[in-house]
Write a structure and sequence with these properties.
It is built from 14 helices and 4 strands. By secondary structure, it is mainly α. The chain has a two-stranded antiparallel ribbon. A hairpin with a 3-residue loop joins β2 and β3.
C-alpha cells in the first residue's frame, strides 16, 4: 500500500481528522449536559448518572455489531428480533422442570442464537445474493414471530448469579453493563483499526468492486460482519433478560431503528467504509442522556419517540450531505 493510499485510509478512521464528526458530537454532548442540568439539577446527580450508564450498555454493544455491518455497505435490521429470541431462550432454559443448566451453558446458548441468525443473514446476502435490507427485514419478521409463538407470556428468572450479570456494579458505582460496553468497543476498535480484517472491512465498504479486484475476500468479510452483529445483539438479549429478570417475545421491538440512529449519529456512513467506534460511543451517550433528560423534565413518552425519529432523519440528512460533498470533491 503506497503512502498516498495509506494516508487516505487513515484519514477515514482518524477520530480527529477534519472530516470526523466526533469533536462536534462531544461539543453537542457537553451543551446537552448544561441544558438538562439547568432545567433539573438531578440530571448531574451521581444516582442519575449511574442510571444513565446502566441503560447504555445494551444499546452500545448492539451498535458495535451493527457498525461492522454498515462499514461493509450493508444493513442488519434483524437485531431487535435476535435480542428478543435470545432473551426468550435464556429465560426458557432457566425454567426447564427438574433440570438445572449451568449459567455458562445458557450464555453460550444465547450467543449461538446470534451466530446462527447472523450466519443465515450472511449466507442469504453473500451466497444467494439477496439485498441485505430485504434479507434482514425477512429474518426480523420470522424470528419475531417465533419469539411471540414461544413466549407470549413472561418467563421469570430467579437465579441471582445470572441477574448480577446485568444488575451488578463494579466498585459499587460503575454498572457492569457499561463496563461490558466499553470493553467490547475498545476490542472492536482495535480490531477495526489495527488488523488486516479491520482494514478489509473498511475497504469492502469503501469500494466493493475495487476490493474484489485487489484480492480481498469481500464475501467472507460481509459474512463475518453479520455474525458479529448477531453476536452483539445476542449479548444484548442476555443482558436484557438479566436486567429485567424475565424474557418475553416483545423484547427488542424497535431496537433496529434506535441502534441505527446511534450508528449514523456517530458518523458511520450509510455508504460504507467510513467512521469509527469513538463516534458511536459518544452518540450512545448522547441518545441515552437525552432520553433520561426528557424523562426528568416530564416530556411525554410519545414525544420522546418522536424526538428520536427526528434525530435519525437529521443524522441521515447530514450523512447524505457529507457523501455528496465527498463526491463533488473527488470530481
Amino acid at each position: 500500500m503506497n503512502n498516498r493510499v495509506k494516508d487516505s485510509f487513515w484519514s477515514k478512521i482518524n477520530i480527529f481528522n477534519k472530516n470526523s464528526i466526533t469533536p462536534s458530537l462531544i461539543i453537542v454532548y457537553l451543551a446537552m449536559i448544561i441544558f438538562f442540568s439547568s432545567l433539573n439539577p438531578l440530571f448531574v446527580s451521581l444516582q442519575n448518572i449511574k442510571g444513565i450508564l446502566a441503560n447504555l450498555g445494551i444499546n452500545g454493544i448492539m451498535a458495535v455489531g451493527l457498525t461492522v455491518v454498515i462499514l461493509t455497505g450493508n444493513f442488519d435490521l434483524s437485531i431487535g428480533s435476535v435480542l428478543g429470541v435470545t432473551a426468550v431462550i435464556c429465560a426458557k432454559l432457566f425454567n426447564i422442570q427438574n433440570a438445572t443448566i449451568p449459567i455458562p451453558i445458557i450464555i453460550l446458548a444465547g450467543i449461538m442464537v446470534g451466530v446462527i441468525i447472523g450466519a443465515l443473514n450472511g449466507f442469504l446476502v453473500t451466497v444467494v445474493g439477496i439485498n441485505s435490507i430485504i434479507t434482514t427485514l425477512g429474518t426480523l419478521a420470522i424470528f419475531r414471530g417465533l419469539a411471540y409463538m414461544y413466549a407470549t407470556e413472561a418467563s421469570l428468572i430467579y437465579n441471582d448469579r445470572f441477574l448480577f450479570i446485568g444488575r451488578g456494579y463494579l466498585f459499587k458505582d460503575i454498572p457492569l453493563t457499561f463496563v461490558y460496553m466499553i470493553a467490547i468497543i475498545v476490542i472492536m476498535y482495535l480490531i477495526l483499526r489495527f488488523t488486516k480484517f479491520g482494514r478489509n472491512i473498511y475497504f469492502t465498504g469503501a469500494n466493493f468492486y475495487a476490493s474484489k479486484l485487489a484480492g480481498i475476500n469481500t464475501r467472507r468479510n460481509i459474512f463475518v460482519a453479520f455474525i458479529i452483529s448477531g453476536i452483539a445483539a445476542s449479548i444484548g438479549g442476555i443482558l436484557m433478560s438479566s436486567q429485567l429478570a424475565f424474557g418475553q417475545g416483545v423484547f427488542g421491538i424497535g431496537f433496529e431503528f434506535r441502534i441505527l440512529t446511534i450508528c449514523v449519529l456517530g458518523g458511520i456512513s450509510l455508504a460504507g467504509g467510513r467512521g469509527t467506534l469513538v463516534g458511536v460511543l459518544v452518540a450512545t451517550l448522547i441518545l441515552g442522556s437525552i432520553s433520561n433528560g426528557l424523562t426528568l423534565i416530564n416530556v411525554p413518552i410519545n414525544w420522546r419517540e418522536t424526538f428520536q425519529g427526528l434525530i435519525l432523519i437529521i443524522a441521515i440528512l447530514i450523512d447524505s450531505i457529507r457523501v455528496r460533498r465527498r463526491e463533488l470533491l473527488k470530481s
